[in-house]
Write a structure and sequence with these properties.
Elements lengths: L19 H16 L14 E3 L13 E9 L11 H7 L10 E10 L5 E5 L5 E3 L8 E3 L3 H15 L5 H24 L5 E6 L1 H8 L4 E5 L3 E3 L4 E3 L2 E5 L1 H9 L8 H21 L6 H14 E4 L4 H9 L4 E6 L4 E5 L2 E5 L2 H11 L16 E6 L5 H11 L3 E3 L13 E4 L4 H10 L4 E4 L8 E5 L7 H4 L2 H6 L8 E6 L30 E2 L1
Parallel strand pairs: 1-12, 2-7, 4-13, 8-22, 16-17, 16-20, 18-19
Antiparallel strand pairs: 2-3, 3-4, 5-6, 7-12, 8-11, 9-10, 13-21, 14-15, 18-20
Length: about 525
């Protein structure tokens, strides 16, 4: 069996970043801010944004339930692949532009129901998930889907003679986004309607746009890793100091728990400062926030004025904020990972997103004709075809000789068979799905690429599958009254999937934290 580790990009030892609430701050602050303004009366809604087509456009009913994936990308490069300025990297205490790769250290799935109730699930970045999208892989940490796929895609294109750096960067990022969307969709079992992505510099830019941030510390701190060096008590921080304030983990009594509380306190300070200064109604400040959004945020192509207005209308709503359950912590290939129960996760997410409707199962096996073809000289297709047939799929003998042999396992589908292709993708380990222009309506074709490793669950019997996930899981839930969707507030509680517990941030106007 191929050694998946040899495909992995080297990841130098570095300080881990947990900035979920930082991502929420930047994305929701700037997007909700402009949601409250008639920005689109004089400008196109997506004018100036980097727009991704990694998520297929789908029709949505105005006011109906929607699901948005927020992606926080731990990259020291801008949206075009250029190195961040050295002065910014110095302020970030983030090493050089090669450090950190393209991990998605923050993934938050946000659901807004028809009544505008907001439920958000944080997806722990080290969740060990099934991943068969790339040759030689069976499982990865979910945060790695973006970077690994980006690297593979660029390498494959370069081998085909593509040498334009910008073209490689754009293709790699789009593939990385698609892989991340697929990995999340395969994990939670619900469709994703929209997504927004932000890089590490976005937080710095937001902090820089403010005239100092008011915080309070219970104790003086000095930490050379993050650059945090502050006295006890109330104080005003500049952008660089604010970064150190929310990133410090070493030397704190409760480690990441204290850092989480700091991030909550920072968000409270940011939102209140923006509100108190009238930034949400000040066209000059809105211009500044929009400049940040245009530079640091990528939106899927489906965002429109109705969605922006809707976000603005629910900016004061209560948010049910949850974390996906983790069974235990373990080590795989020398890396710390979270062992999870995918079936339990799917059940929990579907119930939370059901909008009060009964949760339905997958239903009957579709009757669409399915062909399984080898792209290369291996016999994997027969194994996959046999397994699908045993599960009730209508597998037909292939009637095609492939001219273009894809390097990746790919599912193509004719008109009306997109849902069937997605269901097969889940069974095959989140492989790529694409419209098949040469296929008749309703037909699906699976092309097995070289190096594809068949998931154990595909060939397992139904009884083996149902008995493999009997361990109980726990998760945490927090309901917070927030100033904008997807925010924590000063009376929110920590709900990271760790055994640690501690007091939440206090309700003071400038809450004091460790």
């Amino acid at each position: 069996m191929p050694d998946a580790a040899r495909h992995r990009m080297p990841e130098p030892p570095r300080r881990r970043l947990r900035w979920a609430r930082v991502v929420l701050a930047v994305i929701s602050t700037v997007l909700v801010a402009v949601s409250g303004a008639a920005w689109w009366t004089t400008r196109g809604v997506l004018t100036g944004f980097t727009v991704s087509h990694a998520l297929a456009d789908t029709a949505h009913t105005n006011g109906g339930p929607i699901t948005i994936l927020l992606i926080g990308l731990d990259s020291r490069k801008d949206q075009h692949g250029n190195d961040l300025p050295q002065e910014v990297l110095d302020q970030l205490h983030a090493g050089d532009s090669e450090t950190g790769g393209y991990n998605t250290n923050t993934l938050i799935l946000v659901h807004i129901d028809a009544g505008n109730k907001v439920t958000a699930f944080s997806i722990p970045r080290d969740d060990y998930v099934e991943f068969h999208r790339l040759p030689g892989y069976t499982n990865i940490k979910i945060k790695e889907a973006y970077g690994l796929t980006k690297f593979y895609t660029e390498q494959h294109l370069a081998e085909q003679g593509v040498d334009d750096r910008e073209q490689l960067e754009m293709a790699g990022r789009e593939a990385g986004r698609a892989a991340t969307l697929g990995a999340v969709r395969n994990l939670v079992g619900v469709p994703i309607d929209y997504f927004a992505e932000i890089n590490l510099a976005g937080f710095y830019d937001l902090a820089s746009s403010l005239d100092g941030i008011q915080v309070c510390l219970n104790h003086a701190v000095h930490d050379e890793y993050s650059g945090a060096d502050f006295p006890a008590g109330h104080q005003t921080l500049n952008a660089a100091q604010a970064l150190a304030f929310v990133r410090q983990r070493h030397g704190l009594e409760n480690g990441d728990l204290d850092r989480t509380h700091r991030q909550q306190a920072f968000l409270v300070a940011v939102m209140r400062q923006l509100q108190d200064s009238g930034a949400f109604t000040d066209i000059g400040k809105l211009n500044e926030l929009m400049a940040i959004a245009h530079k640091d945020i990528v939106l899927s192509s489906g965002w429109d004025s109705d969605l922006f207005r809707r976000l603005g209308a629910i900016s004061g709503s209560d948010v049910v904020y949850k974390t996906l359950p983790v069974l235990r912590y373990d080590t795989r290939n020398g890396q710390d990972v979270n062992i999870i129960d995918p079936d339990a996760i799917k059940t929990q997410v579907r119930e939370a997103f059901s909008d009060g409707n009964p949760v339905t199962t997958t239903g009957d096996v579709p009757t669409n004709p399915v062909q399984v073809v080898n792209a290369d000289s291996n016999w994997t297709a027969s194994t996959v075809a046999s397994a699908l047939q045993k599960r009730g799929f209508q597998v037909e003998k292939p009637d095609v000789q492939l001219e273009d042999k894809p390097s990746l396992t790919t599912i193509s589908y004719g008109a009306g068979a997109g849902d069937v292709a997605q269901r097969l993708s889940g069974l095959l380990g989140d492989v790529v799905t694409v419209p098949g222009t040469d296929l008749p309506a309703g037909q699906v074709r699976v092309v097995i690429g070289n190096g594809y490793l068949v998931p154990a669950k595909l060939t397992a019997s139904e009884s083996e599958t149902s008995s493999s996930s009997t361990t109980s899981t726990t998760s945490t839930t927090t309901t917070t009254a927030s100033h904008s969707p997807w925010f924590g507030t000063e009376d929110g509680t920590d709900n990271d999937p760790t055994p640690d517990h501690g007091l939440p941030v206090s309700g003071d106007r400038t809450p004091c934290v460790n």
